[in-house]
From TrEMBL:
SUPFAM superfamilies noted in UniProt: L-aspartase-like
SMART domains on file: ADSL_C
Domain of life: Bacteria
Organism placement in taxonomy: Bacteria, Bacillati, Bacillota, Clostridia, Eubacteriales
GO MF terms held by the record: (S)-2-(5-amino-1-(5-phospho-D-ribosyl)imidazole-4-carboxamido) succinate lyase (fumarate-forming) activity; N6-(1,2-dicarboxyethyl)AMP AMP-lyase (fumarate-forming) activity
Pfam families per record: ADSL_C
GO biological process, any: 'de novo' AMP biosynthetic process
PANTHER family in the record: ADENYLOSUCCINATE LYASE
Keyword Ribonucleoprotein: no
Keywords: Lyase
Entry protein name: Adenylosuccinate lyase
Residue intervals of the Adenylosuccinate lyase C-terminal domain: 86-169
Length: 187
């Protein structure tokens, strides 16, 4: 389709991955009837399946490197998605803070649910997310706008992602030049 980027490479990657996954079934299917009697019924399977799997993996990884080499982050689009959906991700934290301030969990859950559904309907109509404003304006909700915004730092919702990425990169054992070429990790 004309609007897709890298469709042929991505579709080739998918096709090669499917070939490798399907080929991986050859070994257990052969073993299921072979009884490990040192027969030759698996020799053709080995001669074809193993080299093809390595070649297909190599081709898929090369295509993935080409696609990944051209990736770029559209920061404005990411910022908009965060602005639209972070309020929904934060509802559990808002609920817990409301309970800490003396609110009834069931009642606060219902308030958040009701406002979340209304904000979602509004977004489906093309309007921006107004969940936070709805909650701040609700007299039955124990947090005001400033208290709500204080709980909405996007970095607080990344969990261990940065730590896991650092550990993964360390496990790659890159040389100094390769490591220096990587962009810094920021949250």
């Amino acid at each position: 389709m004309a609007y897709k980027r890298n469709p042929m490479r991505s579709e080739r990657i998918c096709s090669l991955a499917r070939l490798v996954m399907a080929g991986a079934m050859n070994a257990p299917m052969t073993a299921s009837v072979q009884w490990f009697e040192r027969t030759l019924d698996d020799s053709a399977n080995r001669r074809v399946s193993l080299p093809e799997a390595f070649l297909a993996c190599d081709a898929a990884l090369r295509a993935m490197a080409e696609v990944a080499g051209g990736l770029r982050v559209n920061e404005r689009i990411v910022a908009r998605a965060v602005a639209d959906y972070l309020p929904f991700l934060a509802t559990e934290n808002l609920l817990m803070e409301g309970v800490r301030r003396g609110g009834d969990r069931q009642a606060l859950h219902e308030i958040i649910r009701r406002h979340s559904m209304a904000a979602t309907e509004r977004m489906k109509a093309g309007e921006p997310c107004d969940l936070l404003e709805r909650l701040a304006d609700d007299p039955a909700f124990p947090l005001d706008g400033a208290q709500i915004r204080a709980l909405l730092d996007p970095a607080a919702f990344t969990g261990r992602a940065a730590e896991q990425t650092e550990a993964f990169l360390a496990s790659l054992d890159l040389d100094a030049q390769e490591a220096a070429s990587l962009p810094p990790l920021t949250v």
